[in-house]
Amino acid sequence: MTTFGIDRENNITACGSGEQTDPSAGETEVFGSQQELAALAEKWPTARLVGIWNGLPGVEPVERFTSRGVAVARIWKAIQSLGPVGAAPAPSAATKKPAARKKAPLAASTRAAGQTKTARVIALLERPQGATLKAIMKATYWQTHSVRGFISGHLKKKLGLKVRSSVREGERVYSIKRRS
Predict the structure, then answer these.
(1) What are the φ and ψ backbone dihedral angles of 27, each rounded to 5 degrees?
(2) What would the CATH number be for the domain defined by 106-176?
(3) Of 149, 126, 129, nearest in space to 137 by CA
């Protein structure tokens, strides 16, 4: 049976059935099953679980887990591919900071996304007649206050679009000038 040790820096070491993990003055915690890992994880902040996961080789980095149990299950499954120390050179599971994601320029990201709610709202607002508050709510499944906040905060302030608001036949209508 393979046992695993995890140190303060979230380095995970796999040991074969007859080997012992080096406790390094009590700073290494040892576990041999998913249940033992779960018991250890109860004492850890969830940020440590995210750090452990993001430090494993070949995994998609995450910002958070839906629950501690999900984190433990995913980590346990991922470390099963680690070989015992000295057997074969196993990739290090040291914590790595996830690479900073670069945002695509606005025009490219809007064109590429196409189906994002932002793109849908902008497409509605670019129509010659604009879009009513109700039409935007229907397209995004948002409530009125969410639509108003999105228009004010995201479209006007963040994206710098000139959004016009008017009342037509008793209904609020928003529109923007078409981009070229």
Answers:
(1) -95, -5
(2) 1.10.10.10
(3) 149
Task: Domain ranges for the chain, please list them.
Answer: 3-79, 106-176
* Segment (H or E) for 76: helix 68-79
Quote the CA–CA distance of 113 and 143 in Å, as a whole number: 23
Nearest one of 139, 131, 118 to 168, comparing CA atoms = 131
Rounded Cα–Cα distance for residues 29 and 40 (Å): 8
Q: What confidence tens digit (pLDDT) does each residue in 43-58 have?
A: 888 889 999 888 888 8
Distance CA 156, CA 49 (A): 38
Backbone angles phi, psi at 106, to 5 degrees: -55, -50
Q: What is the pLDDT of residues 72-131, one digit of tens each?
A: 999 999 888 776 655 444 445 555 555 666 655 555 544 444 578 999 999 999 999 999
Of 99, 100, 76, 63, residue with least CA distance to 14: 76
Token pair 């508050």 is found at: 133
Per the CB < 8 A criterion, the answer to whether 147 and 109 are in contact is: no
